[in-house]
Amino acid sequence: MRKYQSSQSVVTDLLPDSPVHVYRPAAVATAVSFFKENFQGKVVYAVKTNPEPFVLKQVNELGVNSFDVASLHEIKTVSELLPQAELYFMHTVKSRNAIREAYFSYGVRNFSLDTEDELQKILEETNNATDLNLFVRIAMSNSYAELSLADKFGVNVNDAHLLIQKTRKHAKKLGVCFHVGSQCMHPDAYRIAIRMAGKIVSKARVKIEVLDVGGGFPSIYPGMMPPALKLYFNAIHEEFAKITKHGTCELLCEPGRAIVAESGSVIVKVVLRKKDYLYINDGTYGSLFDAGFPKFIFPVKLLREEAVGHSGNFMPFSFFGPTCDSLDFMKGPFYLPEDIKEGDYIEIGQLGAYGRTLATGFNGFKAIDEILAVEDEPIMSLYGDMQKISDELETIAA
Q: Which pTM was predicted?
């Protein structure tokens, strides 16, 4: 991987005509270290967020050896790259072939489910194995999240205790898990979910060995600034202690976005300007799906080939992507200097999560395959000023 001092130096050196992805290893190191130092349980990296081999290797080198995988392809990718990795097959709807291959060919022992039918599939395809760690996923309210997952996954809270009881009979280790929704904006979502999980387990009158609080840990975006992550951890630890005071239980989390979002950016070129619309060479069919459909506003920075200045006055812009599809539109607003023009470059940040992962080659438009490493700071960081503010508030409160 070629290294550059900054995103600006990439533009100055290459003057790229196609989008270029840049990667900040230091940002991943900061995020992983924060989770390992502050979360009082096992960190399981959510591979779907960014499955690049160099990301998986770095996360592993930083001390995370457990991975949340959702498909046979992800299982193969991690297993071939990191043979000693512990895999958690946490998709609740799996094909029979995927279950069988995962168990017999790749040694997967951790499976999630949210129906009795899925439990039966797992048992049949593993020949009623006695070494299964089974996680019952409970559907929880996603009211604090930007993207809800509750409609697609999870057993209803009213029926969960029955499925837990049935699963207990076949599990070497029994766990319950949930997901509070992607980009969760308030720590209380975890507090409420853990309390509910505790009540359901009590109703089931069985012992669980693992509580998995899932993902949903947020990153920071313009207009979407969550509380400091320590406050999320505090809520989780406090509630976990209450439901495990009469026995031992392992605690897991599955961060993705909060680990890798700040590490990635895409550098795009302005192809045309029409008043407050900028036509750029990447879009919703490329790296910017989340800017088009969930309508996330990403941080942006003007880059000019000679690193010259700008007017100093900023205004809101919307983006059109390069394809011939009118859905290739990103409303924003993206605040950039008012004198931006055709030929200028823009760095769009926070794309280490779901950027390249969701990109297609529709209409023949695609980013340069090579990813470049840069050493400068992310445009925005949840682990910077926001965290310092939180630490100061905690000190005052104490």
A: 0.93
